[in-house]
Design goal:
Blueprint: E1 2-7, E2 13-18, H1 24-30, E3 50-53, H2 55-60, H3 66-72, E4 83-85, E5 99-101
Length: 107
């Protein structure tokens, strides 16, 4: 398990123990985090799991795939340099202690 903190647009911070190998989107939905919809079920086809990853995660995550970059062009909230799709990030010990902030809108 990897502990990550989800920061909702409302300001609520929730630490979640995410099973290694799960996507950060799966963990958010399973734990009732407000702000991640995941309408496509994690197939990188909707951009409703847009999030902003912190500097710690930015330093260890691989760059987004071409498909993720294409979907990030369709996000409803402001796209930032640290924008990622939570469905494309798999939990692993390297992410422990990181956080992701959720935008105010997803669609």
């Amino acid at each position: 398990m990897t502990t990550l903190t989800y920061l909702e647009a409302s300001g609520t911070a929730t630490a979640i123990d995410v099973p290694d190998g799960w996507s950060l989107m799966q963990a958010a939905i399973a734990n009732g985090i407000e702000g991640i919809l995941g309408e496509c079920g994690g197939s990188c086809a909707c951009a409703t799991c847009h999030c902003y990853v912190d500097d710690q995660l930015m330093a260890v995550l691989p760059p987004p795939s071409a498909g993720e970059l294409d979907m990030l062009d369709n996000v409803a909230a402001e796209r930032r340099p640290n924008s990622r799709l939570a469905c494309q990030i798999k939990a692993s010990p390297a992410l422990a202690g990181g956080s992701l902030q959720l935008p105010e809108v997803q669609e």
